[in-house]
Amino acid sequence: MNLQDLENQTRTIVLDIIDRSAIKKGQIFVLGLSSSEVAGGLIGKNSSAEIGEVVVKTILEELKAKGIQLAVQGCEHLNRALVVERQVAEDKDLEIVNVIPNLHAGGSGQVAAFKFMEDPVEVEEIVAHAGLDIGDTFIGMHVKRVQVPLIPVQRELGGAHVTALASRPKLIGGARADYATDPIRKF
Fold it and tell me: Where are the membrane-spanning stretches (predicted)?
């Protein structure tokens, strides 16, 4: 896979999801990434540090420019723990856990996050406002309710299936209630 094409496609996808998810400055965006799937293999079988670095660096650049915080989900070997900046963990009172990811325990996305973040730490769980799932890693456990699926402008990145989630406040009150305009679906 051409790494420049990967960067361009990643940027297109993440900008689309940032815009349509209505995520705001200071909120958390979760990334699930299988570099094996991007490379055309099976999840967890062919991790690629290069692919992880391109994808995470590109997403991190776009989120930082908008003041949005990135959380990178690890694989099941780390119980889906997430890499965030230490300041995010402290500001949001998140449980920091002691592990340093590698390609086969955490995955290429987490290794790249440790490389490109200023002061990365692993946390047990978060509540993100939106996220991107590259390679069917299932990020839903980290996105707050009510989850709204978003179909990305591009449904594949390399060989990986791409999905996304946003979240919105619960609608309560029933038929008699009035609601604010939905910033995600715009109805």
Answer: none
